[in-house]
Amino acid sequence: MVFNLLNWLILLACVVAIGSMLAALIKGNRQARFFFVEWLPELAFTIFRVLQLQSGWDQPVWADYGFQASMAFATLDISVRLANQTSRARHERDIADNLAHHDPLTGTLNRRAILGRLDEAIPDAHRNEQSLAPIFIDVDHFKSINDTHGHAVGDRCLQAIVEAIGRELRNADWRGRYGGEEFVVVLPNIDAGTARLVGDRGRASVEAHPVHIRGKTVRMTASLGIAGITDGRDNADSLLERADAALYRAKFDGRNRLSMHPLMAAAGT
Known about the structure:
single chain, alpha+beta, five-stranded mixed β-sheet, 9 helices, 7 strands
């Protein structure tokens, strides 16, 4: 009696499950489609098995194999879907991480990432007795570009700045947008003379590559300030502050030039 009641309860549960899935399918529930495909064969074999037991039918040989096959199919389908969801979640995490550390317009590091990476690179440079030279870059008269040609053209000019400077960098060098029309390039393990040469080549590349857009040619120049680490007390803020001071010196001296901070020039590293 107890087993009969249990069988009928199992049968009722299967019917309710199928009815619920059908109702969700009618409402357009996407997950219900997956659930229906995964579990309908197993539910169907369960219903058949209950009816077979309650009616006293002889169990066909294929019934056992069919039930096992339906379970294997459901397990395989669930495993594949979980793998796809895991892959999708990992991809979305990578996108979120990229957005959190990169400037969406230029694709370079954003200000937060620049400071974080510098704070890690400075101690490493000291431990390895290597130099580290950040270059602060500011587009000359950028406001007039926006005012004259519009922000869409201004955005393209910022992208062109990144492309022009990138032509002169090594694989080990990295760059980022500090804010507005200001950029930072960091040159690891490089002497002062070579750093100055790289910076000046970047400045010349900006000048030599005007932006052609909407039938217009927009010529640009940039001012650059370069500094280098001095002692173990340096951090990202102090190092960029010196590079920024050198940048303002370049602007004061007439723009479209590179200025080296006196401490870096005196050290020669």
